[in-house]
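INFO batch 0412 | record 1 of 1 | parsing
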Amino acid sequence: MADKAHVTDRGVSRAEKRQRAGAVYAVLAYSLWGLLPMYWKLIDQVSAFEILAHRIFWAFIFMIILLIFLGRLGDFFRRFRFFLSHPANLVLIVAASILISINWLVYIWAVNNGHIVESSMGYYINPLVSILLGILFLKEKLTPWQIVAFLLATAGVFIQTIEFGQVPWIAISLALTFGFYGLTKKFIRLDAVLGLTFETLIVTPIAFVYLIYAQMQGTAAFGHSPTLTTVLLIGTGVVTALPLLFFAEGARNISLTMIGFFQYISPTLTLILGVTLYKESFSQAQLISFSFIWLGLLVFSVSPFMKRRLSPGRRPLGTHQHE
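INFO prediction complete | emitting tokens
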């Protein structure tokens, strides 16, 4: 019995270590995403289109090197042949590539043109946009609490629209493109490594042609700016891939509930950076607007627990294996 207990204890210990490691990786991923505006600001003298082109091109190069290092190049070619023989899946990959590219472009432009605060709003409302897309396309059902959460966030966006006389298109564009990107990923069974490789592969030819054209026109920053700028443009591939790989490792070892809470680290850090480091305005109207969105996210985050609490004959929380 003692040996069995010892094995069980060791088993629990390993599980706890995996969960702690998973939490660390997830926090690292969301923290890096939240701090990414600092990287884009270092190259804000470069056009958003050129930064995007370099980000796509160098991310693809980095992912191919990583696949070789991991011994997964064979997996990549097998999947490549599969997509070529299954046009429906190829269309989904192309759609995902276009959506994430638009998302990256809007985000880079927003950060480098003084809209960091509004970009953070986009990623705050993204989970609620994902819920709406789930209802429309996946026939998912909203709980009463989720309806309340969605209405609160909508009120927040509406307040900002009324106050500034225009729709916060940056926030909505970021939320919609990333929401639809997530929806397409529901139908594409790829892990993070292969997923990013294929998504960048699709748009790399366009990015490469653009970079060659910019060089020929003499408008490219790459090679014609200080060495640091050139190095940072190459590094866009690493800063794109690294947090995604951390996230994939974290998601393997922690629950979706924990992932759900951790995802707010990113827009929170971005908001703090925008207000404190880059001195963007944060008016009373914006505070009210964000407060409605934050309240909606709070209701959304606790809604699964409220549902269990109100469900008759519910099982104790400790009996749930996964969430």
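INFO post-check: Confidence is low (pLDDT under 50) at residues 1-9, 313-323.
INFO record closed
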